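Thread: quick sanity check before group meeting

JM: Hey all, I'm pulling together slides for Thursday and realized we never actually wrote out the predicted structure for the chain we discussed last week. Dropping the sequence here so it's in one place. If anyone has concerns about the input, flag it before I start.
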Amino acid sequence: MQMKGVIGGIYSLCDWLMKLAYINILWIAFTFIGLIIFGLFPATTAMFVIIRKILMDKDEIPITKTFWESYKKEFLKSNLLGLILIISSYILYINISFLRSATGLINLLYYPTLMVALGFFLTLFFVFPTFVHFDLRIHQVIKHAFLIMLMNPLSTALMVIGTFAVYLLMTTIPGLIPIFSASILSFVIMWSSFFAFSRLKKQQDAA
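JM (edit): ok, ran it. Output follows.
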């Protein structure tokens, strides 16, 4: 029985690794299909859709078909979301760069702006999980992601630690980058977000 359990665990791990590798290849391919700039966010959304379904113990899903359908369905909406995130990031970067070199009273805004930037950065962890888990409008996705981040420091901490661990793994073994980088990171983020989503559901059920 113990050997069976060990063998079963090894099989499950290998199955996960194969799926993550394939999902990562799809993510790269569909990012290039969209000429990178238009493919990155739909491909990332499709990747999170697949990871979410697998984590929710769905029956064996057709990964390629589901990826392609999600990619097409969310192409415009995910690109709009991505555009908002890019513009917001750029505005924050410009403000921080300006305030860092400014003198006088306006320089007092430097550290508050850094705090806003930190909040925005942490919110980004929840944007795609929120996008694929809930049926929301674009502005609602960002708002909900921010609120979920604030109310769930444990999930946020798990995402930060997990992201750092993935970064260390990829920099230590660069050969893994084209095989696992995006899919493992999305797995860590989606898995961590489920703690927050479960807590939110319990609060809604209790209300």
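AS: nice. The chain has one domain: 2-206. Residues 2-206 form one domain.
JM: adding both to the slides.
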